[in-house]
Amino acid sequence: MPRLLCVTAHPDDEAGNFGGTLAGLGGQGVQIRLICLTGGEAARNRGPAANAAELIQLRAGELAASCKILGIDRHEIWNLPDSGLTRVDFHQTASRLAQQVREWRPDLLFAMGPEGGLTGHPDHGMAGLLATAAFHWAASERCVPAAQAPVFQCPWLLYGSGRQPLPASPAVQLSPPDLACDIGPWVERKRAAFHCHHTQAPLFPRFDAYLAHGGAREYYHFAAAPPHRERPAGVVTVSPPALFDRLGEAASPR
Ligand SMILES: [Zn+2]
User: Fold this and answer.
1) Which of 18, 39, 164, 171 has its CA 20 to 30 A from that of 115?
2) Could you read off the pLDDT of 74-103 as tens digits, one per residue?
3) How far apart are CA 79 and CA 10, in angstroms?
4) What pLDDT sits at residue 250?
5) What is the DSSP annotation of the chain?
6) 43: CA distance to ligand 1 center in Å?
7) How many angstroms separate the CA atoms of 180 and 243, rounded?
8) What's the pLDDT score for residue 214?
9) What is the pLDDT of residue 8?
10) How far apart (Å, rounded) are the C-alpha atoms in residues 59 and 39?
11) Ligand 1 centre from 198 Cα, in Å?
């Protein structure tokens, strides 16, 4: 059974950035695991939380509900500092992620690009940089000794990307997309998953407007691929349930 590991920064990133694709893959014979690096305690929108600990607790419950809707089999929150990922110990955190990659042996890793995805949030960019290092370090004994888990080369690393940054977000230079997932049939599940994040309710109108205007596609950039790959000319559109077949085809040597 193919395995997909998704690395995000905050509870709600899984729905907002990858939700349609994950919903289209969840329950379709793909095992999905999410590692969310922070508890989201620095969010501007705090719901009824009186302090950071309460917000972390509320958001953990919201994330669990979102994962259920999206068909994510297993998720964990690492509780690194929210709005502080740029200051975490890079070697220690990337090594810890690399160990997870070695132990779980995913076929595909999803992350946001170093620019920080559509919103340009520095935590998103750092989550992407840490996941990228983990992707490569998992395959190299020079980077992380194979004391506990043997080296493993995950075949694919895809960055969530887009055609343009979100309106009212800082302008970012996105990595040009190679792949478009047609999430039309799963848009409502993506919306429902995002709406599980009740503490972030002030974001819902903007999110729903985005989904209504051009939200029927989730775009990806091939950040790393198996050998003998040629980048397709133009953006390839695929239905999420066909994603692994498409990558399998694309992976065959030419
Ligand atoms: Zn986020």
Assistant:
1) 39
2) 999 999 999 999 999 999 999 999 999 999
3) 10
4) 64
5) --EEEEEESSTTHHHHHHHHHHHHHBTTTBEEEEEEEE--TT-S--TT-SSHHHHHHHHHHHHHHHHHHHT-SEEEEEEEPTT-GGGS-HHHHHHHHHHHHHHH--SEEEEE-TT-GGGT-HHHHHHHHHHHHHHHHTT-TTTS-TTSS-----SEEEEEE-SSPPTTS----PPPPSEEEE-GGGHHHHHHHHTT-GGGGGGHHHHHHHHHTTTTEEEEEEEE--TT----SSPEEE-GGGHHHHHHHHHS--
6) 9
7) 10
8) 77
9) 98
10) 7
11) 15
**Cα of 121 from ligand 1 centre, angstroms:** 7
For residue range 202-246, list pLDDT tens digits in order.
Answer: 999 999 998 998 789 999 999 999 987 777 778 999 999 999 998
Ligand 1 geometric centre to CA of 109 (Å): 17
Quote the ligand 1 centre to 10 CA distance (angstroms).
5
Q: What percent of the chain has pLDDT over 90?
A: 80
Q: Ligand 1 centroid to 82 CA: how many Å?
A: 9
Sheet with 179-182, edge to edge strand ranges: 74-80, 31-38, 3-8, 108-112, 156-161, 217-224, 179-182, 236-238
Q: Report CA(223)–ligand 1 centroid distance (Å).
A: 20
Distance 189 CA to ligand 1 centre (A): 19
Q: Measured between alpha carbons, how far is 187 from 189 in angstroms, rounded to an integer?
A: 5
Q: Is the pLDDT of residue 191 over 60?
A: yes
In order of their start, the domains of the chain are: 3-251 (3.40.50.10320)
